[in-house]
Write a structure and sequence with these properties.
The structure holds two protein chains of two kinds.
Chain A (H helix, E strand, L loop, with lengths): L3 E2 L4 E5 L4 E7 L4 E9 L6 E7 L4 E4 L2 E6 L4 E6 L8 E9 L9 E2 L3 E6 L1
Parallel strand pairs in A: 2-11
Antiparallel strand pairs in A: 1-3, 3-8, 4-5, 4-9, 6-7, 7-8, 9-10, 9-11
Chain B lengths: L3 E4 L2 E4 L5 E7 L5 E7 L6 E7 L2 E4 L7 E4 L5 E6 L8 E8 L7 E2 L3 E5 L1
Parallel strand pairs in B: 2-11
Antiparallel strand pairs in B: 1-3, 3-8, 4-5, 4-9, 5-6, 7-8, 9-10, 9-11
The chains are: A mainly beta, B mainly beta.
């Protein structure tokens, strides 16, 4: 049962254009969402996050939008650069029953930005 | 820079031969995680340590063990690696209740 879904395994965009990566979730208890970026043979690196009390968070070229009613979030990269080519993972966490939050991961979207 | 370091970056082991992967951190985070990631799949949590308390995921095979001798170090032991254990192994750290984790660069394990 995939609680976090990234339905597009891959995405290709031209340099300078907008990249939009989508993520859907099923668990209404999720209250925090994160995007991680992963290059081949490297560990994931944190990119941007959003709390469920917000609907938008912006950091430079990266903006995450959250639509709670639709249980949908998206990552916008504007303008896209060749160095943005990587796999992007959407992850979500819920308020923990115990001490620790666990991240629930999507399968990732491979972004290719073409010069 | 404070970081999470995994050694080695690449490890080749023989089928059935025990192997140990290591992770160290300078962040002083009290929680450490081990993930397994195979191609085109999401990272899969194997276990985590909350301070010294070990927490095993229900579907983690018995073949996988872990040790955390102190705050800074955590080890993943695979007692009898099979071909299906070939994967990227990721170590991550966080504070208790933190929203996100800091990952190491991973160890790519090949089983021959």
């Amino acid at each position: 049962d995939q609680q976090v879904k990234q339905n597009s395994p891959s995405l290709s965009v031209q340099e300078g254009r907008i990249s939009i990566l989508n993520c859907d979730y099923t668990n209404s208890m999720f209250d925090y969402f994160l995007w991680y970026k992963k290059y081949p043979a490297e560990g994931p690196t944190f990119l941007i996050s959003i709390s469920s009390i917000k609907d938008k968070n912006e950091d430079g070229r990266f903006t995450v939008f959250l639509n709670k009613s639709a249980k949908h979030l998206s990552l916008h990269i504007v303008p896209s650069q060749p160095g943005d080519s990587a796999v992007y993972f959407c992850a979500a966490s819920a308020r923990p029953a115990g001490n620790n939050r666990k991240l629930i991961w999507g399968l990732g979207t491979s972004l290719a930005v073409n010069p | 820079d404070a970081m999470v370091i995994q050694n080695p970056r690449y490890q080749v082991t023989q089928f059935g031969k025990p192997v140990t992967l290591s992770c160290s951190q300078t962040l002083n985070h009290n929680v450490m995680y081990w993930y397994q990631q195979k191609s085109s799949q999401a990272p899969k949590l194997l276990f985590h340590y909350y301070d010294k308390d070990f927490n095993n995921e229900a579907d983690t095979p018995d073949n996988f063990q872990s040790r955390r001798p102190n705050t800074s170090f955590c080890f993943l032991d695979i007692r009898s690696p099979g071909l299906g254990d070939a994967a990227m192994y990721l170590c991550a750290t966080s504070w208790t209740g933190a929203y996100g984790y800091t990952f190491g660069s991973g160890t790519r394990l090949t089983v021959v």
